[in-house]
Fold this sequence. Notes:
- This protein is of the alpha/beta class and 239 residues long.
- The chain has one domain (9-238): Spore Coat Polysaccharide Biosynthesis Protein SpsA, Chain A (Alpha-Beta Complex), CATH 3.90.550.
- Helix content is 24%, strand content 25%.
- The protein is built from six helices and 13 strands.
- It has helices at residues 40-50, 64-70, 87-95, 120-127, 196-205, 227-238, and strands at residues 9-13, 34-35, 38-39, 55-60, 77-81, 104-108, 111-114, 135-141, 154-156, 162-164, 173-181, 209-213, 217-220.
- 41% of the residues are buried.
- Residues 10-231 form the Nucleotidyl transferase domain.
- InterPro entries: GlmU-like, NTP_transferase_dom, Nucleotide-diphossugar_trans.
Amino acid sequence: MTQGTTVTHAMVLAAGLGLRMRPITLSTPKPLVAVAGKTMLDRALDHLARAGIDDLVVNTHWLADTVKEHLAGRDEVVLSHEPDLLETGGGVAKALPLLGHHPFFVVNSDIIWTDGPTPALARLARAWVDAEMDALLLLHPVASAVGYEGKGDFSIDGADRLRRRGEAPTAPLLFAGVQILHPRLFEGCPAGKFSLNILYDRALERRRLFGVVHDGGWYHVGTPEALPEVEALLRREEH
């Protein structure tokens, strides 16, 4: 069975309201909040540039003109504006015509990751098995996630298939906000606003949702109060 794929397109999700980051996000969209000297959006785009991605889509909604102005110098970026917020699934579905017919990356712009020995995007691309997968998620151990306050999302089996936390009190792995999706995942998807979780559940039922466990650092900046701690840890890791 053929393993691995060459990814040429990607989307960065940057349309959210960033409510928990207020008052900062009243005037600055959360993706443009600087953490340790670089905006979270630029961090995501730089990862994708290093992976050789030349066709990039960034969706916008809240303070869209600010994001547009920030990206004015990046010719490889096409904006997908959402007059009404479409959530993760609806946002990607709207941008599908810009994302080609093959597997593509989707990256959240409100998280930060640092790579282990092999870049996370390369690890995902190498792990992709087109005959078996509709979605491949980067996961991170809850125990070493910085700034994360949840109970975890998934467990993973020996074949890298995922299982939801369900009714269990905790799960060992969280969804790290980085993934490869195939356009076929969106066949028959809802119209308008919906979460990617709906499509993950559909893929789970078909045994076509897989994961790769991240081996680098992972940071969530949820509130203004969390910024100093994350910045200090990130600067330490990056230097």
